[in-house]
């Protein structure tokens, strides 16, 4: 049995491909598209689009719902937000805080009157 791939790895793998990011952007712009609608916007085969959608579904970034004979695809941004909270916020907080502290220091010095030396 193959070892299970952590969810974060699936999300990073899915986001690593430009076509999959484009698919997510398309669903962000207009959610609930069918495979045919998505396929018409891309210069690739139906099978290629299906493969990319499968990777996005496995990562939890796309969810589907059947409506009659159609299968509608929807963006699920929760995994992206979880990655943001886990990896981006943590590493940028210190830098942003340092920049804000520097800004406050520079502005407080700017407001203080300067004395001329004799």
Describe this structure in words.
Helix content is 64%, strand content 10%. Strand 1 and strand 2 (70-75) form a beta hairpin. The chain has a two-stranded antiparallel sheet. It has a domain at 7-76: Arc Repressor Mutant, subunit A, CATH 1.10.10. The termini are far apart. It has helices at 7-15, 18-29, 35-41, 46-58, 78-111, and strands spanning 62-67, 70-75. The protein has five helices and two strands. The longest helix has 34 residues, at 78-111. With 118 residues, the protein is mostly helical.
Please outline what is shown here.
The protein is mainly α and 118 residues long. It is built from 5 helices and 2 strands, in the order ααααββα.
What is this structure's SSE topology?
Layout: H1 7-15, H2 18-29, H3 35-41, H4 46-58, E1 62-67, E2 70-75, H5 78-111
Antiparallel strand pairs: 1-2
Radius of gyration: 23 Å
Contiguous low-pLDDT stretches (5 residues minimum) are none
Largest sheet report: 2 strands, antiparallel
Q: Helicity level, as a percent range?
A: 55-70%
The DSSP helix count reads: 5
Order of helices and strands: HHHHEEH
Total beta-strand segments = 2
- The SS-based structural class is mainly alpha
- The CATH topology of the domain at 7-76 comes to Arc Repressor Mutant, subunit A
Q: Just name the CATH architecture of the domain at 7-76.
A: Orthogonal Bundle
How much of the sequence lies in strands comes to: 5-15%
């Amino acid at each position: 049995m193959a070892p299970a791939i952590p969810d974060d790895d699936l999300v990073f793998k899915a986001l690593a491909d430009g076509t999959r990011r484009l698919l997510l952007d398309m669903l962000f712009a207009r959610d609930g598209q069918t495979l045919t609608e998505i396929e018409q916007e891309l210069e690739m085969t139906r099978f290629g689009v299906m493969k990319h959608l499968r990777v996005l579904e496995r990562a939890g970034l796309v969810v589907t719902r059947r409506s009659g004979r159609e299968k509608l695809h929807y963006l699920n941004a929760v995994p992206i937000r979880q990655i943001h909270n886990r990896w981006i916020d943590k590493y940028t907080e210190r830098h942003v805080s340092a920049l804000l502290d520097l800004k406050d220091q520079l502005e407080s010095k700017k407001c203080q009157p300067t004395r001329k030396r004799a």
